[in-house]
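hey so i finally got around to running the thing on that chain from the lab meeting. sorry it took forever, my laptop kept dying and i had to restart like 3 times. anyway pasting the input first so we r on the same page abt which one it is
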Amino acid sequence: MKQLIYILLTSITILMLASCSRTLDDISKWESTGNHLKLIEALEDSDPSIGIAAAEALGTLQTPEAILPLAACLNQTNELLITTAVQALAHLEHPNTITPLTAALRLEQPAAQAIAIEALGAMKATGAIPILGELISSADAQQKMLIITVFEEIASPTATPYLIDQLKQGAPALQAASAQALGQTGGKGAVEALIKTLASDNRATTQAALTALIKIGKEAVHPLIQALRSESQQIRNQTLTALRKMEAVPTRGADSIWFRLAAAAQQLKEEIEPALIQRIALEKWTGTLLDAAAHPNEIIRNHAVTALEKMGKLALDSAFERAEALNLSWFEERNSWPGAPSWRIDLWGAISALHPTRSRSPNFQIPQLIEKLESPETRANSIQTLQAYAPHARLPLIAALNQTPLALAEQAALLLSEPIQPDALQPLMQRVTFELDRNHSLVESPLNEALQRFNAPEAEEVLTRIRPNTERALRCFERHFTNARAISAEKIETKSQQQERYRIGYISTGRVEDFTLTFIYTNIGRWIIQPELPNQLP
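ok and heres what got predicted. didnt touch it at all, straight out
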């Protein structure tokens, strides 16, 4: 009897369990009818497939009441159930899912993590950024990229430090993505990090950084302007591009000068542009130009130095103060250089002392090279070297025109007259006048030759004190008859010491002609053309 009762009870229990067992058809029915309570209960079913189906259905229904039960599934052991529960939470798109989704970031299942990361980004969950930041350091490349993309989507400055880290040490693709994301997040340190990235060897990264800086806009303008001073050519060039695209090109003051100097370096303007120098010098930003004179880039440095020299005495005090602070013995010895003491030597020496790599600067040889111009034994090599150093030697050569031996001044004058250095004209006229006042004949002197090369109207008064030669006759003819092409000048012998005559050969309307030009020595000691030249050639 007892055995029969036991069999009956067992059978009843099995029938009851069978009647309570859930099936996938039940899950489908409850989903279609919106019975979220039954689905929530099914999450704890002993059959994992039922729980997985229930979680998926709850995600489809987007039922807020399912948030906590779904969150509880993250503690289950079945990986597919956990991943499906995370997916369901993501589908809910409810603010209250942020906490469990953030917790899901610490799961060991990469698929579940990826779902949570994307969902948090879609909801712009700023609170999740610190955990995402922790995760990115140990994530694989694919997950790093996903997190960076989410940071860009959230667009919060809280993510900036993590993006900067990836910008510094990530692979090129991650660096480019991080730069792009920083354009959305902004934040402390973003602009500075992006500017440094402009020097990247990876073109995509550089372009992403440039685009991000432009997107950040006004906040990036001042740091970009400061970056015009960078030693990196690539940073300066990209900065110029950014400022132009942002329509933020500085138009006045020190920033404007740096922009123009950086632009000159970008265009590789090795030859000094007079118009640019004139504009920069007129603005009289001495301190800025002295900073630029110490810049490692040769084009920036040379343009700044030329502008300072153009400013002349106005730049002397500031340049002198900086040079003295360096305590260079070379600079302290300047008063022993040819032409010293002279403000030109003081200014040139002070600017030269600022050179960032003095051992490679040609300037430090120039005073000795000028000194060697005096001796015929050392002259040829010095001239050749000084011609190569021409842009750097202008001021000390001008200084050497005066207070120096005549032979040295003559060679300095020739160097300054080919090519013409306009600032040398007045000092050269001063030296020529000095020699004439001492009754020195300068007919064959290089001083005379150099002064004639300037072909300057203001030099005529001085030149009339010197007995003419063929070069003088030729130049006077060409200056007066601008439409004729002179081809020769021949001296005509005369008996008078007060007269010099020259036959000038020229081409006019396709024919070779000649013209006689006569100089007369007046009673006031001047050689003048007499008779005066006609307006037109015969």
